């Protein structure tokens, strides 16, 4: 719990892929398989370039690289591949499960805010068992990097976005969270997190705690030591 002079955030808003669970290798493997099946070449760096992008962008990129399928079929293939991998074993990021449990114990509301579609986000949310609302990529008009997903999450929770802390790992997700007005934490997973005004950068979720999230919500932890 935070010191008496610090209030808990009104809510913590979580990205999913890369931030809470290590699904990026599953996405890249699915992309590689699909492009290869259609006679093309897809590298790890190509996959990293799609991290955090909406599914529609990923599908169009693969189509442009020679995947001769309707865009919705590309989306369905990728979602099925990743969902199967997550179902086999939930690939939690270091410190993720423990931090979620600590926030539940502290009574902090939480939202899952992801570019992934409901076919993947809802089963994960059921496993996590701690999210009050889910905002998926197929439930918003404008996906990340637009601020709409985070604004929608705060509205569903009935809390001011300025009193929320968003936790992200991708450039587009960080852009979305900062633009929404949420206090924002950037976790360096697959993409470097560049300094931005108002952004707290951490190497992984073990650097966060309920107390630190309270400090971030209060605007008292905007400079990360040694980063």
Overview of the molecule:
The chain has 227 residues and is α/β, with parallel strands linked by helices. It has helices at 24-37, 44-49, 55-64, 71-88, 96-106, 118-128, 148-157, 171-180, 210-217, and strands at residues 11-14, 110-113, 133-135, 164-168, 183-187, 199-202. The protein has two domains: 11-22 and 92-217, HAD superfamily/HAD-like (Rossmann fold, 3-Layer(aba) Sandwich); 24-88, DNA polymerase, domain 1 (Orthogonal Bundle). The chain is built from nine helices and six strands, in the order βαααααβαβαβαββα. A six-stranded parallel sheet has the order 3-2-1-4-5-6, with helices on both faces. The chain is elongated and about 60 Å long. Pfam families: HAD_2 (PF13419). Keywords: Carbohydrate metabolism, Hydrolase, Magnesium, Metal-binding. It comes from Cellulomonas rhizosphaerae. Belongs to the HAD-like hydrolase superfamily. CbbY/CbbZ/Gph/YieH family.
